[in-house]
């Protein structure tokens, strides 16, 4: 019997499509000997739900699932139809996966107890961030945080399982639904990005070991609220203008964050006179992106302290957020800390 040995030259006519998300997760399982595969399966469940939401988003105009749903969520924000659909898809995937015992979602008033006593993980999620941009075809996203429960397996869910600071996250990520669909995540060992190939139905590793530039020249903030900003932030924005930085603000948190992560920049959603505690949610927006930013070499603060060290006190707690390239975040912190005395020179 003749045996032919495979060589790379045999595949010269077919280009490599790269490493799939599933294969990458399996390759990295040794980084989590305590997880016994559950965390890996949980990431796959999230990826599956993301594929379904991607499909729904792409056909929203044809299927008449764009626009408002006619109700408001716990934030007092008008729900879009796709908000509701995405929330159902992710909750259903996490329920069927079996690794999660509870879910905290932007779209639900209370903790969702999945009645899974053997589940080791709690997931906090914004199923569809920036959904008001759907009808005008602007990029939107999903943001998620994963925590290990702290109470014994099999016991009822307790507040301490949910109210964990961001420094206790075991994984976090986001999905960007744009010109291409990307899933970016970290498990505390760097940040990796995967691009969805719809003809194959797979996420492929496209951005390995993502690193945020230490400095940048992009600032992202809603300057329509400029008159409500504290003096230090106004001074920082004027400094950005004087140095001819680029102002880039999409209004979709994931899209703005993703651009600045790749190109270098800072995203700011500060405290204002109207919203002194900020508007972004700590548990399922700020914590996840802050974990990713730090793992990529960036930084995230509320203007005065590290986001990941904030102890949550309520389910839908809000926080100011300054996130992105390390030098830019450090600099805006300096402006904010001396802004009241107006001693910063621009």
From TrEMBL:
Compartment list: Cytoplasm
Residue spans crossing the bilayer: none
UniProt binding sites for Mg(2+) 1: 106, 126, 128
InterPro entries reported in the protein's UniProt record: FBPase_C_dom, FBPase_class-1, FBPase_N, FBPtase
Binding site for Mg(2+) 2: 126, 129, 285
Fructose-1-6-bisphosphatase class 1 C-terminal domain sequence ranges: 213-336
Free-text remark on how the cofactor is bound: Binds 2 magnesium ions per subunit.
Domain Fructose-1-6-bisphosphatase class I N-terminal: 20-208
Entry's Gene Ontology BP terms: fructose 1,6-bisphosphate metabolic process; fructose 6-phosphate metabolic process; fructose metabolic process; gluconeogenesis; sucrose biosynthetic process
Keyword terms: Carbohydrate metabolism, Cytoplasm, Hydrolase, Magnesium, Metal-binding
Record: residues binding substrate: 129-132, 222, 249, 279
EC numbers on record: 3.1.3.11
Cellular component GO terms held in the UniProt record: cytosol
NCBIfam families: PRK09293.1-1
Protein family membership: Belongs to the FBPase class 1 family.
Subunit structure: Homotetramer.
Protein name (database record): Fructose-1,6-bisphosphatase class 1
Organism of origin: Aquiflexum gelatinilyticum
